[in-house]
Amino acid sequence: MLFDTHAHYDSGAFNADRMEVLSSMPEQGVGLILNPGCELDSSRAAVALAEAFPFVYAAVGFHPSDCEGYSDQAEAELRSLAAHPKVKAIGEIGLDYYWKDNAPAAVQQEVFRRQMALAQSLDLPVIIHDREAHHDCLEVVRSFPGVRGVYHCYSGSLEDAKVLVKLGWMLSFTGVITYKNARKALEVIDWLPMDRIMIETDSPYLTPEPFRGKRNDSGHVHLVCETIARVKGISPEEAARITMENGKRFFGIE
Ligand code: NI
Known about the structure:
Bound molecules: nickel (II) ion
Radius of gyration: 17 Å
Structural class: alpha/beta
Helix content: 40-55%
Strand order of the largest sheet: 1-2-3-4-5-6-7-8
CATH topology: TIM Barrel
Number of helices: 9
C-alpha cells in the first residue's frame, strides 16, 4: 500500500466526484492520504475529509499564496483545529516568490515564522512549500531548530538537501520527477538516504507522465514510487514499503 503524503481533495477540482475518488483509493493500492490546508476554509475542509475517511489525515495552515488572511484570530482557529486527533502537521506553509501577485516577501516570511512557532508550541511537524525562495526558506528553517518538517515537492539543490538531512528533515517528491527535465531532482534522490524520502501527488496538480495535463489524484502516486525505486535500484514494492513507513513515522500515524 502507498502513502500519498500531500493531496488537496478540498480543491474545487474535486467538487463533482470527491467522495467517489477518495472511496476508490484503497482498491487502487493507496492506504493513506494526508490532505494539507492552504487557508482556514481549506484547513477546515481537510479536517472534515479526515473525519469522513479512516485513511485520510489532515494538516492545517496558510500557504504563502494565501498568507494575507493570516491574523491572531486565524492563528487561534488553526490552534483549535490542530487539536483534532487526525491533524498531524502544520501545513502547507512556506515561501513562494514565483507568483508575482503573492504577498511581499517580508509578509510571507512573517506568516511563515508565526506558523513555525505555532508548530513548535504544538509539537507538530511542518509541511514546507518553497518555490524560488530556497535561501530565505532555509534561513527560517534553521532559525527553528526545534521544528521538524518535510519539504514538499522538493526543488532545491543537492547541497541544500544535504543541509536538510543533517537537520533531520524529510524530502518529498511529486509527479514532477517523471518529467523529462527532472535531472536535478533525480540527482537528489540518488544521494538521499532512503529513510528521508516521502512520496506525494500534490493532487489535483502536478500529474505524472504519461497523464500530464489531466487532473491528478492519488491513484497516480505509484508512478512517483516507481520512479524512486528505479533511481534507487530497488523494487517498487520495497520503495512503497519504506515510503509508507517513513510517512507514518514522520506524521506519527499508527
Ligand atoms: Ni500542495
